[in-house]
Sequence to fold (329 residues):
Amino acid sequence: METLLLDSTDVHHNAEMAELIPAIEQAFGAYERGDAQMPAKSYIDLPAYNGDFRSMPAYLRTDDWDAAGIKWVNVHPDNEEQFDLPTVIGTMIYSDPETAFPLSIMDGTELTMQRTGAAAAVATHRLAHPDASSLGIVGAGVQAYSQLEAISEVRDIQEVVVSDLDEARVREFIETFEDRFDVREGTVSEAGHCDVLSTVTPVREPVVGPDDVGKHTHINGMGADAEGKHEIADELLLDAKLVIDDYKQCTHSGEINVPFNNGILTDEDIYGEIGEIVVGDKRGRTTEDGITVFDSTGLAIQDVAAAHIVYEHAQERGNGTSFDLLGLA
Fold:
């Protein structure tokens, strides 16, 4: 038995959104029902290198499949300038739960990008207006692409407004999608007045305020994944129907971490976790809802569910490179 090595191209080609989105939704449901194990994300701080490592293990079981794995990921802001390397590098080990055999080692960076888009699509499906047809994106980096690809799977997106301080990034994004969508550059407020808004920036001072969104906009807060990061103004969070992916992670490093730890936002201001909506314990969007917000930190169960989809497709299609990692051949 051999291990399958999947590079970023392999992961991209086998992470089909039409199947990835329901797999991520199944993962949220499994976690809520207690059919998943997900220890807290652990951090190794490396101040000497201005970076850190993060380990994210998980196991989950659905009616049709179970899966296990661990993602080892870093954030090194100086990498690009000093070493011509990405700021974030992820590696996913996908294992057989029954035998613990390492079925695949795959690029975790592309996997993260795709599963993050899929998570936003799950939340959009549950919380956005059913007739939503416009999408605003604040931040035109790599995550912006999977946001549009995924959300357009669950809503009939016609118009896209992208906002970013980097004009080159905006042009590249527009050129990528202009044949498929009515996509244009706009201000944060113009993006925020779309039916759906995804924020994918690393900022530590909010860039989206109460006047920057429509009365019924659904917001996917995707950028905050560490202490101190904060994209959406406190007043906006307090006025919204606020849904999170995981209480421990969100209060530690999600969009709500700053106002929560400053005592501005409390448990009473959190409507619930996305898993509660998926399993039917709480309602998604109702006719009475105005602004809704999904605070996404990114969970290890998402990585494992995404790895399952990628591995199964790669096996079917003969993608990747097989090798004898354990020396059993």
